[in-house]
Amino acid sequence: MTRPRIFETIAGLRADVEAARRSGRRIAMVPTMGALHEGHLSLVRAAQAKADLVIVSIFVNPTQFAPNEDFDAYPRDNDSDIAKLAELGVDAVFLPTVCEMYPKGFATGVSVGGPSQGLESVTRPHFFNGVALVVTKLLLAALPDLAIFGEKDYQQLCVIRQFVRDLNIPIEIEGAPTVREDDGLAMSSRNRYLGPDDRKRAALLPAVLRETLQALDAGTPVADALDRGRSRLTDGGFEVDYLELRTADTLAPVDDATRELRLLVAAKLGATRLIDNMPWSRAS
């Protein structure tokens, strides 16, 4: 088992990538915030299937956390993460410090609209500008041929696709399917915050998504199906931020002509906030 090459500076990463590019290798990047689980590792495998060299970045990005959020408490275990990546044969890990990404005097931001509006932005208005900033910096640090993101963070994926297209960043953005626990809960680094009782209750979240989609398939009006789903979550101990059906590619509100849709949810169990989503295709 070979340990990945570790780069802590943008200059070092760029030099390595440039050497690979000169040799004709196709390069993929998987940006993460670490605390890697099988969901992250599935993204790495997808990248390895599409590229000759895979770079995984590990960086807990402060610009996407509000002052009252869990930046300091966010799980970090770089040694364990690197060992998992070594087992998969990952070529390189980009492990920058906050000072490397945001040096003294840093004064630039990225402002996003379109699919960033609503849903997560209602309770986390700072979030997507912070994500857009760090992803832009990570992509420009490596300039890979493609980058892979998980569909669990579906609104984030839509936002990234939008600003990469708008800014003419010459990188393919691909989504990979959500990986789930045996009870259906989407894998997430924040799942470790759940106590034993809340962890059992958490399986209601994907169950309600499935029930809501089944109701829609059966012809239940959208508003009624969503109201029923919200009530089920509230009765199950969740504090619901949203349960919404949106257009799949833009996350715009649906109309009768919309065929490809996405059902998205965010809800809290105690202090832990969980998000999930599932696709739905309306019959012609």
Order of helices and strands: EHEHEHEHHHEHEHHHEEE
Question: How far apart are the termini?
Answer: 51 Å
Strands ordered across the widest β-sheet? 1-4-3-2-5-6
Largest sheet features: 6 strands, parallel
The number of distinct β-strands equals 9
Strand content: 15-25%
| Number of helices, where a helix is a run of at least 4 consecutive DSSP H or I residues | 10
Structural class: alpha/beta
Low-pLDDT stretches: none
Helix content: 25-40%
Morphology call: globular
Radius of gyration (CA) equals 19 Å
Average pLDDT works out at: 96
Structure in words:
This protein has 284 residues and is an alpha/beta fold. The chain has ten helices and nine strands. It has helices spanning 10-22, 38-50, 78-88, 98-101, 120-123, 127-142, 154-166, 196-202, 204-217, 222-235, and strands spanning 5-7, 27-32, 53-58, 92-94, 146-150, 172-176, 239-247, 260-269, 272-281. Helix 3 (78-88) links the parallel strand 3 (53-58) and strand 4 (92-94). Helix 6 (127-142) packs across helix 7 (154-166) and helix 9 packs antiparallel against helix 10 (222-235).
